[in-house]
Amino acid sequence: MAPRSNETKQRILDAAEKLFAKEGFAGVTVRQIMREAGADVALAYYHFDSKRDLFDAVLMRRADHMNDVRHAALDAVEQRHPDDAPSVQEIIEAFTQPLLKLLAEDHDTWRDYFALIAQINNSPQWGGELMTRFFDPLVRRFMDAIRRAMPDAADVDLFWCYNFLSGALTLTFAETGRIDNLSQGLCQSKDMDAISDRLPRFIAAGFRHICNPT
Amino acid sequence: MAPRSNETKQRILDAAEKLFAKEGFAGVTVRQIMREAGADVALAYYHFDSKRDLFDAVLMRRADHMNDVRHAALDAVEQRHPDDAPSVQEIIEAFTQPLLKLLAEDHDTWRDYFALIAQINNSPQWGGELMTRFFDPLVRRFMDAIRRAMPDAADVDLFWCYNFLSGALTLTFAETGRIDNLSQGLCQSKDMDAISDRLPRFIAAGFRHICNPT
DNA sequence: GTCTATAGCTTGATAGAC
DNA sequence: GTCTATCAAGCTATAGAC
Known about the structure:
Arc Repressor Mutant, subunit A
């Protein structure tokens, strides 16, 4: 593959990521993507089989790295606790903070991707299948870790709590601007420090309250 | 307006609600909607100005009732506490339980509408504007009530906690089937009793943990 | 690898008969 | 109110020159 080819391919993926994130799969045409990428429509079909194939490629491009940084964060937590179990909050932080850190450090690169994930997660059409395929292996490892931290918790409680975590996390990623409106500017969707300080503690408190047998 | 007309109009709205919920605004054609409704394409444009006008009509049709039942639930809580402030959990329950109750009692009517709201809430394209327009007046009243229950809480903390609540609540409504997959059938997206038992307690614990100054 | 050109279809929307 | 018929525009995707 010529070096020029891969460059164009990445430009197409960048353009597709940006537009799919804003308008969803059906809300964007291949023509719009290629106009944004500054290349001809036919090139989309040279580099990808179809519009749907391009969509999958956009998702896949960053999924591995996303899973890697989260696995690494959980590795680090477990190495800090060779004998005892880590706290629920430490585990939740290993799940959320790597993503918030990516966003904080390279906002332009990750914002659109995370907004896309948020839409997929909440879509009956895509959510069940795609989230399961891309992220459930990682999620299972986190669930195992939490189970060890709370050995008396019922599985059904743990899974529901994960559902609430997932919703809170992805809406926060979507950066829709609603919280900016509601708070009249007091909160800003893109303020990752503010989220970092609150989201993992909020979620860990919920887990403890629901899953800890009294 | 003839009685037959309104009947057809409702059938169009039902069909549009169902399809928009599954595939989003752009993912559905007017032709598909009218096929589902069992009427001719031209009738869509007799009853509504445009596809977008039909979309807004779908949203508007149930928004008032949704807001009414939540206002009524908060009224009831406040009447139970003429002198002291209600607990955070009571207020959260007045926010969430009326919707879960609608879903539990009349699942077929409300499932698609709530799935649609979930997608809009997580869409950068629609979320900021539409959620603000339809629901923020009600949300402000709930924020005021919570502020009275936690007089020492900082506003910025309260708004972020509302954001987490909103994400958890709407993903739960979306019924994407992901939690069914992840839990291998242990949890079911449509099990409103399971959610009722856990969601408000989870959220209230988060609010208390973040907003209560130690 | 990148372009021109175009096939074959579907789209949102409307005009006009009944 | 409801239908038939239709339009201009835009769509995904491809064939073939360079």
